[in-house]
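cron nightly-structures :: item 1 of 1
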Amino acid sequence: METWDSVLIRSQAPTSLVGIARQGRLARDYGNGPKAVVLSEVDETALALIDLAAGHRKNLALVYPAPAGEVSVLLAVQLLLQRFQRHEPSPAIGIVTTDTTRAAHTWDRLSITTHGEHVKLSEVFACFRAGPNGEAPHGGRRVRGLIVGERCAGWDVDALIEDHLAGVVQGGLKGPSVELYADPLDPRLESAAARGVLVWGWPESELTCGQAGTPISEDQTPFSVAHERLRTLAEGVSVAVEISRHDEAEIAIKRAREDLRVLRELAGSHPARNIRKGLSVAWHHLSTLTALPCRPSDFDRFAGLPPIGARKTSTFAAEVVAWARTLEGDLSEIATLLAGDLDELRAALDLGHPFLHSLTKVAEQGPESVAIVKTRTAARALAFSLCGDPNAGDLKVGSLSIVGMSKLHRSGSYDRAIIVGVPAKWDWHRVDSGLARNVRVLVLGREDGRVCGKVGRALERYREHWGSPAVRGETWRALVHCEPPPAPPYRPRPDRLIVLDDIDEFVQDADPFDALGSLSQFEPLRIGEEGVEESLAVPNEHGDWIAEVPAVRVETDLGSIMLEVGKRVEVRDARTVTEYQPERLVPGMRLLIGRKAGRLGLLEALEERLHGQRPDLVVGRLLIDDFHQRIRASVRETDLTCPALHEKLERLGCDKGIAAVRGWVSGASTLAPRDLSDLRHLNNVLGLALSDTRLKELFAAVRRWRGFRRSAGRALAEAARASTVTPHHAQTDDYTGLSIADLREAVIEANVIRVAPCPIPTPLTEIGHLETS
């Protein structure tokens, strides 16, 4: 019996994008020349559906069964081609996505073969980047082509594609829209259906009938990793939740969760930011400990400073204790108990870890599997625990390969996968979306097993609901204006999710999830590939943890912001970006602030983009910060004055003046000496104990960071002068790896009005947040 998808695809004309792709004329360039793109049957069905929805000006929501990559770009091509073939003078489509850079890059790499020549889509339909607040390009005037932005503010487009696959976005267009989802549990889907939006999902029976796929030749390429995932779904997927036991650890986990629950109740309905952020960070610390693949002490061997490495678990308790001292009454007492429970949990897991036994067995005995852990730090720690080598064979030990969770959206399918720890609720849809035919989820304790079973079964239920004949039939009748064909016969299938108890247990010789899950989003945190990147407290020069620091309040034209005294910030002066201590800021300076709360300066504001495109800058900045810390510590220990230091440097051959030397050690505005010889002199005089190799690395880092700041300063100056957003703003700078549009989306420039010292120390959780009220 022909499936509904097949009927829709068969209706597509040869001039549609489906027809063009099947003729081998749709191409994508991955850097080695254009290759013909092969679409999956799900992609082809989606294109057929939006063709119909656009023709009838209906809103449509698509629930993709697998991570769909840049499918929003594919849909935009279809909508523009449709209007181009109707000879509309200025067709325009909008995409709202959190990954605007990737969408614009994909658009630039697509082409259609015409008369033997590859014609890039961007040459026919330009790609425009919206402003950072969703401002339309060219002052709102109609443009021909594609508009890409993180939000939509009154764009003049024929249709809007809201891509929820990469994160939460804000649409808001009153005209036709297409909403893309991957998580069937996303509450916005229910809201869309309630508003009358048509919904189309893919049940497992439909995938089994039509997704086997055709072989791909060497001169072809699948449009995204969804192609491989869909083939896996067609073959069938099973998920087993395996409960490991550790009595002492489970007791500590139960106590910590109870502490968090009591703190949440004591905090009330509108707690201060310091309490909100503290609860969120503590919840993430607990989640990190329960998802470790090895002993915490082995994990800490490879931990470091985010975003390069995850934070050491040995610091969790001390950080929470310091935060507790900023609270009062019962809140302070319970937070102190929470720190103790986190410390007990870490100590219990350090005695032995049940996950490690399961993973060791697979590595030594097979079958070939991939272990999926939370961070790269966890991956290296697991490799070390298994064979003593943190870089073993590109993180492969015996039969076990090891990858981080953040890499899954770029990965195809595996035969067997082992997920270590309870996946976050928003990650669960990845588990049964074709990641592997056989998936094992290792959890610690029956409570986590219960949670996994509940969420996994809800996911299956909702996936089947959005792909049911009732939901799809309503969409069919609204778009095709006839009754749908008979649905394929229902074939009951066994539950693909099972929960297995007491798989591995550590024994020493001799609703919590529902109640606490909201803490993960209670206060937005900076969470990168290596976990939480914000701190409740930091160690001072004596090794004591402090959660409050001296601060100044800086009033700007955009609001006020608290900044830590002595911790340098970046300002732009014309085309130059320089650093100043906050207490030295003066009215008229342009302070650089990240649009995401709590991010200061270029590095933090651009962190996600730099991590993937310029990791050398991220590492370089960490080397520079370590250099400054060593200098400050040495100056404190030696009580060396600037004149005395200058005199000693002169004796070694340094020809710089005392003002330059003062800049090197004060941290007021100078990154580091410009000459390698001066770096060596400073290292010798202050006894910094840096090897010559490290000095050369530091020197290279300083040069690269200065070059980056020069390029960023020019781009920011150009962005500030521009009153409109043009295609030129989407062009990538060769040195920074970023476009002007990237900088506009990530960085705010706030004009300093006044600076005033805070009368009492300020909690670290209050530092760096721009208050616009």
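cron nightly-structures :: done
The radius of gyration is 28 Å.
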